[in-house]
Design goal:
InterPro entries: AAA+_ATPase (IPR003593), ABC_AA/LPS_Transport (IPR051120), ABC_transporter-like_ATP-bd (IPR003439), P-loop_NTPase (IPR027417). The protein has helices at about 45-50, 75-80, 95-110, 125-135, 150-160, 180-195, 205-215, 230-235, 240-245; strands at about 5-15, 20-30, 35, 60-65, 65-70, 80-85, 165-170, 200-205, 215-220, 225-230. The chain is an alpha/beta fold. The chain has 2 domains: about 1-80 and about 165-245, Rossmann fold (3-Layer(aba) Sandwich); about 90-165, no CATH class. It binds adenosine-5'-triphosphate. Adenosine-5'-triphosphate binds near residues 15, 41, 43 and 46. Adenosine-5'-triphosphate binds near residues 15, 20 and 40.
Length: about 250
């Protein structure tokens, strides 16, 4: 069997007696598009924080490509190949779309030389290529703060891709995006991930989005994995329907 791209083994962490990760075991395979679903407060974001070094587990390990990365600094984990996009995009809203991306490209190289122009060293070309990957090239000169929510999310995601990650973790990519915009956003995102050959995990509350786009679904409940499988199976599981989808 091939080594999973990411593996979480028996991760545990509690906040004031609440077990936010209660023995989480999960494998992510290269090339898959994995959805995490679960009730509010079940520990989905905590899991992303544990995988990216924002939280240190009280016990358990995280492996990337079979090598332990548990509790490394977020910056080190990002350099090793795990990038992250947030539920609320982390952008410089009063800067243009292109500048936001050029800043990300500069930061990725780990050197910030303030007296050099932002678009030096091929940064403009790299940023423009990334914008074209998600069809944001037409909005390059707009202020990030003027973009509609769906386009802002795409910009945040493409900033994560600027790191050239192997795995990207997306926290609710469609939250705050209108129902009409959601599918367009997901189609663009999926195409970009495929072209960039990036594996992705996304936390999502919209079950239509999960059903349509996820290769595999992992269901969270009270800090651990309650069920997993392809959407066609998971959405037939009565416990999932009762506890998460709320229709059984
Ligand atoms: N830094 C923290 N300090 C204290 N409690 C926390 C912290 N982070 C998470 N928690 C608690 O841990 C539990 C899991 O929270 P988490 O945000 O991981 O859930 P979630 O499944 O992502 O929820 P949602 O779907 O609402 O985003 C909750 O009870 C939350 O209040």
């Amino acid at each position: 069997m091939t080594t999973p791209l990411l593996q979480a083994k028996d991760l545990r962490i509690a906040f004031y007696g609440v077990q936010a990760a209660d023995g989480v075991n999960l494998e992510i395979r290269e090339g898959e598009f994995l959805a995490i679903i679960g009730p509010n407060g079940s520990g989905k974001t905590t899991f992303l924080n544990l995988c990216t070094g924002y939280l240190r587990p009280s016990s358990g390990e995280v492996y990337l490509d079979g090598k332990p990365i548990t509790a490394m600094a977020p910056r080190t984990i990002a350099r090793r190949g795990i990038a992250r996009a947030f539920q609320i995009p982390q952008l410089f809203l009063d800067q243009t779309v292109l500048d936001n991306l050029m800043i990300a490209v500069a930061a990725k190289r780990g050197i910030w030389v303030p007296f050099k122009a932002l678009d030096a060293d091929g940064r403009r070309r790299e940023a423009e290529e990334l914008l074209a990957l998600v069809g944001l090239d037409g909005e390059a000169q707009q202020l990030a703060g003027a973009l509609p929510e769906g386009r802002r999310k795409l910009l945040d995601i493409v900033i994560a891709l600027a790191l050239k990650p192997r795995l990207v973790l997306l926290d609710e990519p469609t939250s705050g995006v209108s129902t009409i915009e959601r599918f367009t956003l997901m189609e663009t995102l999926m195409a970009a991930l495929r072209r960039a050959k990036v594996t992705a995990l996304f936390v999502e509350h919209d079950m239509d989005v999960v059903q349509r786009y996820a290769d595999r679904v992992v269901v969270w409940d009270s800090g651990s994995v309650m069920a997993e499988g392809p959407p066609s199976e998971v959405f037939k599981d009565e416990r999932v329907l009762r506890n998460v989808v709320g229709v059984a």
